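Write out structure tokens for Amino acid ABC transporter permease.
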Amino acid sequence: MTNLFQTFSADFVSGFKYTIYASLLALIFSLIIGTLMAILQLSHNRVVRHLAKAYVAFFRNIPLLIIVMFFYVIAPMYFYSFDGFQAGTIGLIIYTSAFIAETVRSGIQTVPKGQMEAGLSSGFTYAETMRYIILPQAFKIVIPPLGNQFINLIKNSSILAMVAGLDLMYQGDLIASTTFNTFDTYIIVGLFYLILTLPLSYLMNYLDKHWSNA
């Protein structure tokens, strides 16, 4: 295993960098979109509420691979050509945002309704009350499930390998097909994923305990 890593270290590290980049982009934008969709699902506007619920229901219930393939195969035929990295990352963002939306929505609904009423009566607008009062409390409540979504996102980033996204799994597949040493190759790939997921897991556990005692 050591010799394999030394020989292909540049390829493993290159794929690892792409995995980190895709995961960070997907994490940031899926959190933003998911939070927005969570708020819109609770909107007093029926049309907006139903559109947001349709978005969440649709993308939660179709495979991630289909979303990625839409941007990689179908989109270039009609409006824009995405490379593998772009298609995979966009797919990750859309797919994960639907799950985050449900997580954040449940957190918002857990906050007592009196908090919203208190904010509005204090002169805050609905958006300001949501931003400064409701969402901070909601995020404290949903830290564990959000952490699970972030970890799943990192693991799901391996979907980029299906569209030549240059990520860690893609490089692992190339190395395994070249050396025929699949066991050692995927052990190394798995260890690289652990480098990302384990610290994130500990961080989310720390934040959960810290904010629970705050």
